[in-house]
Amino acid sequence: MRAAALLLGCMTGLGVTPAAANPVKSLYTTVELKACQPLKGLREGDAWRCQGLPGYPVYVAEGDLRQFVSAGKDAEHRRAATQTLQPLNSIFDGEHRRATIEWRFERRGDGQIPYATIVRYHTSQHGRRGDVLVISKVTPLETCHLAYVDALANSNAIALARRIADEMARAFDCSQEPRTLGAQGKSPM
Questions:
Q1: Domains held by the chain: number
Q2: Is the pLDDT of residue 17 over 50?
Q3: If exposure means fewest CB atoms within 10 Å of the residue's CB, which of 15, 47, 82, 116 is most exposed?
Q4: Does the residue 116 lie in any domain?
Q5: Burial of 153 by CB count in 10 Å (0-12 exposed, 13-18 middle, 19+ buried)?
Q6: pLDDT tens readout for residues 82-116
């Protein structure tokens, strides 16, 4: 008991409170198209509604050899549903038709409220292949891309993507264009 009090005192003295020590966590969901509901009525390409977090279904679409991912109620009508990377891309790695979405969230009471997602896109352009982490803002009303990280050019790419999500997502204005952050040049973006 005394050791815990001493640790708490040291943490507080350093400006770290227990809540600030680990305020954010990640949840993970999987996109597997065979488990998703196909959507009809699209002019170009295919689209699916997949399970995400409660209240935040995931919309996945593909067209012109590129994929689009959005989340939330009416995800197909949010800005993220129209955003993708310029090179040919897929959230699926080769023949594997399964992808992971990392959700950054905060706790409110017993609830887990997401504010960002991180999705790895596999890109290809002029014979070059790469991996890009796409960080998106997620709220009950909007979802949009906020930043891109070249996962091959940054040895700490996932840590960088999480920091960007945690520091920028809540205040990001979805009318703005996403930015590429960190080192660049290894993955087509």
A1: 1
A2: no
A3: 15
A4: yes
A5: middle
A6: 999 999 999 998 777 899 999 999 988 888 899 99
